[in-house]
Structures are given as C-alpha cells and as structure tokens.
Amino acid sequence: WGLIPTYAFVWAAGRFTSKRPQGSELTTLVPAAWITVSAAFIMSNAFWYAFSDKVSTLSIYQFTQAVAQYYVPYLGYSMFYLGVAWATYACLNSMVFNKDRIA
C-alpha cells in the first residue's frame, strides 16, 4: 500500500507544475521532474523498508547502500519517458496550432 502516497505525490507534483505560468517549458519541467522522481524513489523504497519482511535483517544504512545502485537507472528511465511524453505533447501541440493558422 506504500505506493499509494508515492503516486499521489507524483500526481500532485504534476498538477502543481502544470499550474505554473511556464509549466510546459523545459526550464521548469526538468528540475521539477528530477525532484519528483527522486522523491518518489526515496518514498517507495522507504515504504518497502518499513513494511517488508524481506529487508528486516538490514540496517537503514545497509538498505540504503543496497538500493542506491538502482537510483540512476530509475531516474534515467523516468526522465527518458517524460522526455518522450513532452516531445509528443510539443509536436501535437505544434500541429494543432499550425493547422489553425493554415485554415
């Protein structure tokens, strides 16, 4: 059940960012995405550590060392998919506005 607050945080961060005046600009999205993805990584792993019996033998330090190796791939894949989504949005948005100008 620990992913529910994690996904709620990601959703809320997206809503908050979209309400900003420059919400779809990369200078706003990249730092917001990095902070949000990093927080989601920390939250999901913290819930797993707190409620899983699979890691109960590890100290917090040992657990942190064990999951730290997954941070860069987690961040990289998340940023890649967010980049694809942003590029798709920008292309579709551009096509809609260009279509309105031509017509």
List keywords for this structure.
mainly alpha, 0% strand, single chain, 103 residues, 81% helix
Question: What layout of secondary structure does this protein have?
Answer:
Blueprint: H1 3-18, H2 26-51, H3 60-68, H4 71-102
Helix pairs in contact: 1-2, 2-4
Structure characterization notes:
- With 103 residues, this protein is mainly α.
- The protein has one domain.
- Helix content is 81%, strand content 0%.
- The chain is built from four helices and no strands.
- It has helices at residues 3-18, 26-51, 60-68, 71-102.
- The longest helix has 32 residues, at 71-102.
- The protein is elongated and about 60 Å long.
- The mean pLDDT is 88.
Weakly predicted, low-confidence segments: none
Pattern of helices and strands: HHHH
Instruction: State the share of residues found in helices, binned by percent.
Output: over 70%
Integer average pLDDT: 88
Please count the beta strands (DSSP E, at least 2 residues each).
0
Distance linking N and C termini: 51 Å
What proportion strand?
Answer: under 5%
Largest sheet: none
Radius of gyration: 18 Å
Secondary-structure-derived class: mainly alpha
Summarize the structure.
This protein is mainly alpha-helical and 103 residues long.
